[in-house]
Amino acid sequence: MGRSYARTPLNLNPRGTMPKISWRSILALLSAGLIVSNGSVRWAITPSISEAVTAASANIASDLSSGSHLGFDTFSYPGDAAMRAWQTADQPYKWVGYYLSAPCHTDSSWEGKRDALSGMGWGMAVIYVGQQTWGRTPGAKVAVTRFVTKRVRQVRTRKGKRVVSYVNKRVPVRVMVSPRASRNSSCSTQFVSAARGVADANDAIAKTAAEGFAKGTVIFLDIERMEVVPQAMRDYYRAWTRRVLEDGRFRPAYYAHSFNANLVYSDVKQVLTGAGGFSKDKAPSDVGHAFAQVWQGILDVVETHNGVRLPIDVSVAQLPSPSENYPAGE
Question: Are 148 and 171 in contact (CB under 8 A)?
């Protein structure tokens, strides 16, 4: 994209600095009988589930141990020949940003290229460029210069006498106005709001599905750098996050500048963990269902106990061993 600053892709499921390992994803892949790694397909022919899990873990560990996996993004699709040349050459890039047509990225040249890129062996990061602030505050009035007609008093001297007259003149004045988005524009500071966050999330979901991406695919919401993050923008990306989670087909993530990364991370983590909802001291039925026996409310965090660090989901249960067959009344 030609940007000169660092950008930080933020996965909604934060794991600190630890590489992402989703054990549920491993099991899902095993149930399909294959493990996908680095764009290739490796069949998991194992006689037992324990060996299958060991094999899956080894494959993922192998990928992670090779270090960082370089990728790139560029505004428009370079063409099949260019992408094939870059994939087959001795080059360091393993994945590419896959731009959906979006409010602030109307180019649609990437659309329909998923199968071709996958066939070439490219990994992909699905990117949706939503609304941006462009250094302004949504809804804030701005000063503009306008010309108005005013009756102006003029004094002239004629034959030694002062003569007063009045004429109409157009004069500049500064006024405060509420800006509006340009006509037929899809991308504007004035569109940044929670309601538009929901609408743009629906658009991102529909386009990701139309491109044929699998359930569970991560959609990166592109958020450009802001010196100050207006409340309306925070409402926008939190609403976008919440809607993607509610739909359930895909997972939200963020392509943000490092200058704003901590704030974005904090805001969306609250959505992820259900701030104001789940807490470790609540009962499962507090989720809103009287019949609930277990409530899982904090997802994909990393905790360290006795020097051992693990990626976990946190749940609260009514019983100390939820699957144990307790005698009636216990």
Answer: yes
Confidence check: pLDDT of 304 > 90? no
Element (H, E) at 314: strand 308-317
Together in a domain, 25 and 172:
no
Longest dimension (CA), the chain: 118
DSSP state of 182: P
Tens digits of residue pLDDT in 183-205: 788 999 999 999 999 999 999 99
> Domain count of the chain?
3
Beta strand pairing call for 294-305 and 123-129: unpaired
C-alpha 225/C-alpha 261 separation (Å) is: 9
The pTM for the full model equals: 0.62
Please, what is the end-to-end C-alpha distance for the chain in angstroms? 61
State the pairing for strand pair 142-158/123-129.
Answer: unpaired
Query: 90: which residues sit within 8 A by CB, 6+ positions away?
Result: none
Half-sphere exposure of 36 (CA within 13 A, CB side): 11
**Residue labelled with tokens 């988005």:** 181
Domain membership of residue 182 (yes or no) is no
Q: Say if residue 35's pLDDT is above 70.
A: no
- Based on the fold, state whether residues 202 and 146 are members of the same structural domain: no
Dist. CA 138–CA 132, nearest whole Å: 10
Task: Report the distance separating Cα 256 and Cα 223, nearest Å.
Answer: 5
Q: Specify the CATH number for the domain of residue 214.
A: 3.20.20
